[in-house]
Amino acid sequence: MSASAENSRSLCTEIIESTRSLFKSNVSHFHAISILFLLPIVLALVVYPSFHIALFHPNYNFTSFSLSNFEIIVLIVYTFSLVLFFLCAVATTTYSAVQAYHDRPINVISSIKSIRNSFFPLLYTFIILHAIFISITLVFSLIFVILVRILQYLGLIELKHDSNHLLFYVIPSLIVLIPVLIWLLVNWSLAYAIAVVESKWGYETLRRSANLVKGKRGVAFRIHLYYGLVILIIVVNGSRFLGKGNQWRSLAVILQTALSSVMGFMIMNQYLVANVVLCMYCKDFNGEKLIGDKFASEYVSLLVDDEKNHDDM
């Protein structure tokens, strides 16, 4: 068991080092597509919550929670914008990482053009993935409420409407729910990369990811935990400087926000590249090749288009 854990740590370190090497060898390219698609995401995650509170809840009074129609519209637009930028970032970064791994020349135009072939498979996969997560959470919540009501009806528990008493029941349920969601997330961690590389859709990407990551779940978990915690720390650290009042106008807060945003999009970019590298390792482990004929022909097609556009110019 210890040998298996040691191998998992060693492989995880190897994947992270390979990711950094791949990233550094094409740093200008990855920075370019990151600025286009990832920087807006990180900046929105860091800045928007404070601006939302300042705009809709200036008195910081959350005792009566209600959302106006305009606030709901703003949240919907905000969410859809994040999803759009995220899908474009995944499409361009995955395409670029695959080509860079195979020592093929890459450029920003080709990466952006690859979005047209990957966007809808990614969108469908995104919808299916989150629909499953939300459904599991809702079903689990419903079961939890029914169970609490039954125990309350039998007189085995007394439900009080104070926060401490509610947390006493909620925390154990989260202890059960969160590991289930994490297990699914690890199994489906390669779904987006597969949607781009193999042009698969929805449930097919989830099944394919679960098959590929089998035997390497520990590695996938470590990689997601590593990058996830780093990104979370950066975003939270950047957001906490945007406090009450006009603190956000100070030069120190502006510089801290800018620094957090830059660090955030760089780490997020490395995370997307690491996911592709993990996919490569899993394919190699299963004796498969990463790029099929379809993906290779797509690469040639994009290069031909670029050459034509260059000649026209």
TrEMBL record:
Keyword S-adenosyl-L-methionine: no
Keyword terms, alphabetized: Membrane, Transmembrane, Transmembrane helix
Keyword Transmembrane included in the entry's annotation: yes
TM stretches of this protein: 30-52, 72-98, 119-147, 167-197, 218-236, 248-268
Protein name: Uncharacterized protein
Gene source species: Anisodus tanguticus
